Amino acid sequence: MKKIVLAFAALVLFSISYAQNTDANRLVIIKDGKAGYIDTLGKEVISPVFANGGQFSEGIATVVHTGNKGLRYTFINDKMEVVIPVVFDAAGDFTEGLASVQVGGKWGYINKEGNTAIEPQFAMCFDFHEGYAMAQKKDKWGLINKNGEWAVQPVYYSISNYSDGLFAGQKEMGEKWFFYNLEGSVAIKDTFDRAGFFTNGLAPVRKNDKWGFVNKAGKLVIDYQYTGAMEFSSGLACVEKDFANWGFINTAGNTVIDFQFASHARFRFNHALVEKGVEYGYINKTGIFIWSGKQ
Questions:
Q1: How far is CA 69 from CA 65, 72, 73, 87, 101, in A?
Q2: pLDDT digits (tens, 9 = 90+) for 139-184
């Protein structure tokens, strides 16, 4: 069961989008090895019948079926109706009207009618965020626009989402991370060992094995003190202390949900998927489980 839960959590994190739309507040769960969906009160609304599933975004969710050719991905609405009958080798969430899909080993994008919006051509690509998406060509990353054109050329070993006019990038493995604008100019003078993207005006950054948060001026707002950190979502960020438990802080750096979880998470529809001991499930912003299962 542990392996199933980890694979489920990995798919959810991979396909997660940051838009908190409210047209279908459904949260994916795993029950008896199958994926289904609950509402934000913890009530089951779509029976667990899928091999796996992503989160709902823009009223649509990616679900996984087992077929003759292995795992196949398609899309359903909150009434469990298949809205895009085409099947794919893999797929992400819909964000800003497009979803990443894998066909024949290459990644591209479809629209909500299931038509190709950007031809499969990338080694990997992710959700659109403020009009741009991370995409990989060969072994380098850049940012593309919704026409599939490179807004930021693929010259980075690693890169973050574009947000608030900036993105973080690392040119070569082992080099420092900088924050850049779309023109490729360095926007923050300081350098970092690792960096995320801006949400709620702050971005997680790492120096000397500790994480803190900076603002767009490069000022350190939350001190370097954590062994792990994620971006803010719904006003809270998941952070780790002493390579052990994860908890949640607010933008002032105050602990809101105590350090008690074995996994990191982002809030979605004001709920976050966490692990605690043999229990996994969704907590609300006060740290209370609204649904839980056993690993």
A1: 10, 8, 11, 11, 16
A2: 999 999 999 999 999 999 999 999 999 999 999 999 999 999 999 9
Question: Residue 80 — φ and ψ, nearest 5°?
Answer: 70, 20
What are residue 263's phi and psi, to 5 degrees? -135, 155
Which DSSP state fits 3?
A: H
d(CA 132, CA 149): 10
Nearest Cα to Cα of residue 22 among 53, 54, 57, 55: 57
Maximum CA extent, the chain: 54
Q: How many residues does the chain have?
A: 295
| SS3 call for 240 | strand
- Fill in the amino acid letter for 256: V
- HEC string of 33-78 equals CEEEEECCCCCEEEEEEECEECCCECCEEEEEEEECCEEEEEEECC
pTM metric for this prediction: 0.90
Q: Is the CATH number of domain 232-295 2.40.128.630?
A: yes
Average pLDDT, the chain: 92
Going by the DSSP 8-state scheme, the letter that residue 8 receives in this structure is H
Domain assignments of the chain as residue spans, ordered by start: 1-122, 232-295
